[in-house]
What does this fold into?
Amino acid sequence: MEVTQISKKEFELFKKYIYDNTGIRLADHKATLLKTRLNKRLRELDLNSFKEYYEYLGNNQSEYTKFVNAISTNVTSFFREARQWEFLTKEIENIKARATGKKLRIWSAACSTGEEPYTIAMFLKKEMEEFNDFDIKILASDISHEALIKAKRGIYKGKDIGDLPKHHITNNFIRVGKTDDYKIDDDLVDLVMFREFNLVYGDYSLFGKTQFDLIFCRNVMIYFDNDTKQNVVQNLAKKLKKGGYLFIGHSESLMAHEGLQYVIPSIYKKI
Ligand SMILES: C[S@@+](CC[C@H](N)C(=O)[O-])C[C@H]1O[C@@H](n2cnc3c(N)ncnc32)[C@H](O)[C@@H]1O
It folds into this structure.
């Protein structure tokens, strides 16, 4: 299969386009990765160069979604960042006590293919005896349309759920016929509301006055530069309830941020 090469000049065009549209800052050594990910689109569109694809992208709005799908890294898993779930297990009574009118509002702000919001739902179902008495809503958003389609379906392969404790599999998934597909139970799916949302350029007022008890924004800010990250964190902090928690990825860190107190690595509390 012939691979179309990307020149330095072409890479710079895409680098700027990606930054201006998603906030993702591509390092120079990512040229090969970009080339690999976009070659399929060039072939599908019968284009001979990245310059042609750049022009096509500029002239065809509908290509934007496909472009974002091709460049975004959607790696995720159930119960990722084990220390955060241990922390939450210890903290759950306090979280419940702070919930106004038995309402829990949670935001999975870069939810990818859904493993994160469904983990939150499974966790709460297991850890809260009064699970059914609480009004729980999980907002799950991502920039990638394709990832959200998979998330909404809530169907995963055996290998994706294989590492989960057995009780989570038996209590929360139904095998689809005799296939290797496992569907998340509807009572958990019903807790989650999926939305396409760009953390960098999106309008945070779209979520109205909702103040969240917990916000998960994990393994996405690693792709942003410091200024972008600061802005995103500031916007998220505004949407957090006092006493609420912000969870980030374990390899990410935040600079001192007004209103957010460091708790343990990758966990911050709104004060
Ligand atoms: C590596 S995944 C992380 C998924 C999950 N939070 C986790 O930790 O397992 C990063 C996700 O961020 C999304 N993303 C990238 N840039 C974004 C942006 N500007 N706004 C919202 N989501 C974005 C990607 O589409 C991808 O699904």
